[in-house]
Amino acid sequence: MKIKVLLVDDHAIVLKGLKFFLQTQRDIEVVGEARNGKEAIAKVEKYQPDVVLMDLIMPEMDGIEATRKIKETYPQVKVIVLTSFSDQEYVLSGIKAGAEGYQLKDVEPDILVEAIKKTVSGEKALHSQVTHQLVTHVTSQEESAVKFSSLTPREKDVLYHITLGKSNKEIAADLNVTEKTVKTHVTRILAKLELHDRTQTAVYAIKHKWFGHQQ
């Protein structure tokens, strides 16, 4: 039985090229095309494809939102993001939305075919550059967790107030300690996090969501 594929991209030339190549594959059938996320959802309902090749940046509804909605309603449908963007934010958004694969448009045709077959068999299909992005992200998160755990409860309190933009004097008043004590804590925090100033420290803590209620 052939693998039914739906193509989603707002560039006609991309759709034409993908369709031409995939139709040369004996075990793949292109069942439909869509130019945006909303149309993709409608075409999934109509054609019930096995795999959707999903572009990211499109009018009306982007590929991230379309992927999320498709996976919510049709969890059996496999989605492979096919885009020019390898930035970590796009990669993570695509994976979190439920995509089983993430490929870049410079991928070799044979590798794309392999990716389609992998997702149908239940495997993940990630471009090598994307895999590197995910490894980097995980490593960064692990390092962040280690650094946060190295702080004492009082240092975490001080750091929290730093992320609120408070001065040492204000922090001292809030925590009922001397300003000198706060300065000592700040110095230790900078050393443990290997950062140079308060601004870097605040940005680092917020970026890694150490104090979630601030986000």
TrEMBL record:
Q: Where in the cell is it found?
A: Cytoplasm
HTH luxR-type domain span: 144-209
Task: Report the principal subcellular site.
Answer: cytoplasm
The alphabetized UniProt keywords are:
DNA-binding, Phosphoprotein, Transcription, Transcription regulation
The segment(s) forming the Response regulatory domain are: 4-120
Q: Which PROSITE patterns match?
A: HTH_LUXR_1, HTH_LUXR_2, RESPONSE_REGULATORY
The membrane-spanning stretches of this chain are none
PTM 4-aspartylphosphate: list the residues: D55
GO molecular function terms attached to this record: DNA binding
Task: List the protein's name.
Answer: DNA-binding NarL/FixJ family response regulator
Query: Lineage from the top down?
Result: Bacteria, Bacillati, Bacillota, Bacilli, Bacillales
